Amino acid sequence: MLNFISVGLTLIFISSPWWSLAFSFLTIILFNYAFDPVLYLFFMSAFIAPGLFCWIYSFGILVYPKTKIRIIIPYFIICLIYESLLIFFLFTNPDIIAVYEGKFSYRRTWFNIAFLVFVIATTIITGGIFAIKSISSENSIVRWKGIFFSNAIISFVLASVLDVFSVGNSVLQIITKIIFIAIGIEYCLGFFLPNRLTIALTGEKSLD
Q1: Which residues pair with 200 in a beta bridge?
Q2: pTM of this prediction?
Q3: What is the pLDDT of residues 65-91, one digit of tens each?
């Protein structure tokens, strides 16, 4: 049960880097209120570490159930340290997290980028292992899930890189948001294939 929850939370947290932009835009339209820097940076960065931990928890349970603790505990410590430093810097020196570049635009600093690189590297390695194991399965349904999941990993890496360099570039920001939407769909299909799609792809009925 916890594994399904962590899979779902990972899907939710994938989109967290652009929550601040979306929520701030809505509050301006509805209440004529723009997020202050602390709140904006919180939504932009605070859910990345929980998202990474949720994924590692799912990965450990699904791929290495016998040795999952050896994987989960180190990542829990790393994510806890990052999150603690993030909260501390938010209230003491937000410029360590990101620098204001203009309306709805913040440039990430080394602190934020370094952790994002760590997240991307972890995603490539663990996601690659998970996708390869799925695609190598004799079960055609699992193979298709692996294909969708591998596409989600590729899209996530691409979107993460574009997100870093999209500051001040509205075209790149739009492309990044579209890719993040695609990631959500691909990731979801990597775990839960609807019966109609399963039958269309494999001729078999999904067991989900």
Answers
A1: none
A2: 0.82
A3: 899 999 999 999 999 999 999 999 999
21-67 pLDDT tens trace:
777 777 777 787 777 788 888 888 899 999 999 999 999 998 898 99
Per-residue confidence (pLDDT) for residue 129, from 0 to 100: 93
How would you write 11-76 as a 3-class SS string? HHHHCHHHHHHHHHHHHHHHHCCCCCHHHHHHHHHCCHHHHHHHHHHHHHHHHCCCCHHHHHHHHH
Please name the residues in contact with 155: beta carbons below 8 A apart, sequence gap of 6 or more.
Answer: 179, 182, 183, 186
Domains of the chain by residue range: 2-202
pLDDT at position 11 over 90: no
Amino acid identity of residue 205, one-letter, is K
For residue 150 the two structure tokens come to 């591998």
- Taking the CA atoms of residue 49, residue 55, residue 61 and residue 64 in that order, the dihedral angle to the nearest 10 degrees is -90
